[in-house]
Design a protein that fits this description.
This protein has 393 residues and is mainly alpha-helical. It has 2 domains: 244 residues, Rhopdopsin 7-helix transmembrane proteins (Up-down Bundle), CATH 1.20.1070; 127 residues, no CATH class. The protein has 15 helices and no strands.
């Protein structure tokens, strides 16, 4: 793989992550943290686009100044370091907004001064020979250009260490996908610091009369692309993981409600909307299923027999079931009997003889009632008893 292609692949990875964030930003455009993450990923992609050797040559030709692409790339890299640290500061949050603002101002001011110093040193220096991949080592002994290179590397190293420390400390305080994302950022920052160490080593080797440029042009280059993917993945993983986790929990609830929904399905009016297709968002399908269950329970209320519920509840308690589980099983039996009783045009139970189904008041209890509808043998016994009962005038 050529250097230009590899840089563009890294930029593409960051742009994909930015596109995912931009899609989320479309739904929540006022989220400042989401805007900051999107901007950080876009700046990172811009960095790899401009740093590709073919693009460096194009930038130099555009401005007509040899190696002017170097301070441009170094400035973008420095800006990326700054916004990444600011993003972590805001992502982590602070009880005092004043502290967050002070840290943000300090970071942005410091790195703005670094950018200004990079351009000043480049203007003072002399770099007439165009170097697209080994400028760091080729001019490692050139006055002012050497200082420019060391300055950008120092700022980059400080950012990498800061990212490692902040991400690692925070990852020890949070669970789940957020922890995983922070660990990815920590690993990416460690790779970034390794990139800097390789650059330092190659430069010092030049000072000592050795040619270890391959550490800078080959190994460090490979690590830079890998670190970009790790950092991008670290920023994208938490929201994706949280969204996937939410949808997975909704799907589990949807499936667990299937037995109860199937039981009351005959009570769903023909005028009600049909069940949503499987490709519709699962949270919408879950909402529709729960609404159908609540509506059916209301229509079945006049057929809820207190004697059936009390008998099943007492038997479940006698067998050692917890009160909540016993109540869910009793409710399931009452609903099963009511569906059959209503279907046979049996008369309504008098209000004072009705059983109150309380399992619909809590979503978890609703799931327990659906489980009882599927697994409890007493529900089937109740169905058979209701089917054999003589209709009452």
């Amino acid at each position: 793989m050529s250097a230009g292609t590899a840089y563009l692949c890294s930029a593409g990875g960051l742009l994909i992550a930015a596109a995912i964030k931009a899609w989320a930003l479309r739904k929540n455009p006022r989220d400042p943290l989401l805007r900051a993450v999107t901007a950080t990923l876009v700046v990172g992609a811009l960095l790899f686009v401009t740093a590709a050797p073919p693009h460096l040559a194009a930038i130099n030709a555009l401005f007509g100044v040899p190696n002017i692409a170097a301070p441009i790339v170094y400035s973008i890299l420095t800006a990326f370091d700054a916004v990444t640290i600011v993003l972590l500061i805001h992502w982590r949050g602070n009880d005092e907004a004043r502290v967050t603002r002070r840290q943000t101002r300090l970071c942005l001011t410091t790195y703005a001064l670094v950018v200004l110093a990079i351009w000043t040193l480049f203007a003072w220096g002399d770099a007439p020979v165009e170097r697209l991949r080994d400028l760091d080592t080729y001019y490692s002994s050139t006055l002012w250009i050497r200082e420019m290179v060391l300055l950008y590397l120092a700022a980059h190293s400080v950012a990498a260490v800061t990212m490692m420390v902040l991400s690692w400390r925070w990852s020890r305080q949070v669970p789940g996908t957020l922890k995983g994302g922070l660990l990815l950022i920590t690993a990416g920052a460690a790779c970034t610091f390794a990139y800097d160490l390789l650059k330092y080593t190659a430069i010092v080797a030049r000072w000592l009369g050795h040619d270890w440029d391959w550490l800078s042009t080959q190994v460090a280059f490979s690590i830079a692309g890998f670190s970009a993917f790790l950092i991008a993945g670290g920023f994208v993983l938490p929201p994706l993981g949280q969204g996937a986790g939410y949808r997975w929990r909704a799907l589990r609830r949807f499936r667990r409600l299937q037995p109860l929904w199937s039981e009351i399905r005959p009570e769903i009016p023909g005028t009600s909307p049909p069940p949503m297709a499987w490709w519709q968002p699962v949270e919408h399908r879950l909402m529709q299923r729960e609404r159908d269950i609540f509506d059916a329970v209301l229509r079945l209320t006049p057929w809820f027999d207190r004697a059936t519920g009390a008998n099943v509840y007492a038997l479940a308690l006698a067998e050692g079931s917890e009160s909540g589980r016993a109540r869910s099983e009793a409710d399931a039996c009452v609903i099963a009997r009511a569906v059959i009783g209503k279907g046979r045009s049996a008369p309504a139970v008098a209000p004072e003889l009705r059983w109150t189904v309380s399992s619909i008041e809590d979503s978890d209890d609703l799931l327990d009632m659906s489980d009882a509808m599927l697994r409890s043998s007493r529900v089937e016994v109740t169905r058979q008893s209701a089917a054999l009962a003589e209709p009452r005038a």
